[in-house]
């Protein structure tokens, strides 16, 4: 797929379809383009089209202009148009045109510019909305958009914005591919290969093997891997775009979560291949940041393993000593993510981080609390939480803060160890975060629970059903502004 900036008039643009964005009820927006177009639009506005958010209408173009067809796409009420609405319109329009077998399409940008919105937002939605995962479909669909021409004067700003958009969306789609891949092909070993594929001059990748993490004493992490024949891989990536202390991103990377001996119900268990969505997001972020060459020192950690109930699996009631010396009583082997993250957080402290951010499909309680609309955010670092909230508003990867009251400590009190990995269903969204907090201590740390948002059951304008790739846009935007 190619994105071009093309400084030609709408009527002179040779393409299969010309996209004209409309605000609601404003039939005169393109009145000075060409008399035949304006006549056509007037007619359509009387019945067929109104400009409501994400409304689409594809019509044959008048004979005397070069585009073959015109797609009208609605942005909703003029006063309410935002970057998000434009992204949605971009996703809806592009996927619709692909399904109608349009190969070369063009976007008219005048209306967006007059609303002070960037065409790059529209293209962002398009590139995300056109995503498909068909690696396992034998007879592939042929319909594919080959190019989008952005009809505009060439400016450095637009060129830079589009470059940013292409890099970030391809990183989101990279993460989506990893998450959608079934767990028989996305083992910890495969995930490590995916990480190694990102290696380049400014990005180093190292994989710690089982014996290495044994030596380090990461017994909380290893307790999860014991029930599987697949070897665990502790993946570390480093991008040094500045001399400052690093930001460490830790992504939960359970390539399949059966629950272990605390086995999950069979219904819907196939979805648990997405339990590495945090790790995939971290890879996506680092891929984008290294391509954009952002001035930030970034370390990514993916403590990857399967969680299976094999003969040597960890059992409820077992006690293990974590990397930082704390003992943990394992009440549920299904509360495995926090075991892997606890050791990664402990290990991350060695790098003197200015901040640790973990991102994880950690609790079912997160999707019960917030549905698929928001990431739950908790942490001990107010400024960073506030920065993430700003990035969330910008990218519409929204976050909602939950508390870390000290009283939650009580919920995790064990009779025989320093802490237990699970209390009860009561408050399990916040107690899972509190568990991590016990390992982060005073080191600046923020936790993102993406259990409700990592997987989308019903398609959205720019998120096809399946892996959403959430977290990539949120964090790349955050890191862009982090001095
Ligand atoms: N991976 C799951 C959380 C999850 C559940 C993500 C549903 C997405 C959809 C996690 O490891 C888990 O099993 N959490 C349990 C913890 C409990 C048993 C201690 C949960 O929240 O139900
Ligand atoms: Zn689990
Ligand atoms: Zn899990």
Share in helix: 25-40%
Question: What bound compounds does this protein have?
Answer: ligand BES, zinc ion
Give the strand content. Answer: 15-25%
> What is the distance, rounded to the nearest whole angstrom, between the alpha carbons of the first and last residues?
33 Å
Structural class: alpha/beta
Tally of DSSP helical segments: 15
Shape: elongated
**Major sheet: size, sense and barrel closure?**
9 strands, mixed
Arithmetic mean pLDDT = 97
Structure, explained:
This protein has 483 residues and is α/β, with parallel strands linked by helices. Helices cover 35% and strands 20% of the residues. The chain has helices at residues 35-46, 83-99, 110-114, 119-129, 156-180, 188-196, 210-216, 219-225, 277-292, 337-348, 364-370, 382-395, 408-411, 428-440, 472-480; strands at residues 2-6, 17-22, 56-60, 69-74, 104-108, 147-151, 203-208, 233-240, 247-251, 253-257, 297-307, 319-321, 327-329, 355-360, 375-379, 399-401, 419-420, 445-449, 455-456, 466-467. Helix 5 (156-180) packs antiparallel against helix 9 (277-292), helix 8 (219-225) runs antiparallel to helix 10 and helix 12 packs across helix 15 (472-480). The radius of gyration is 24 Å and the shape is elongated. The structure holds ligand BES and zinc ion (2 copies). Residues 257, 275, 332, 334-337, 361-365, 367, 422, 428, 451 line the site of ligand BES. One zinc ion binds at residues 257, 259, 334, 336.
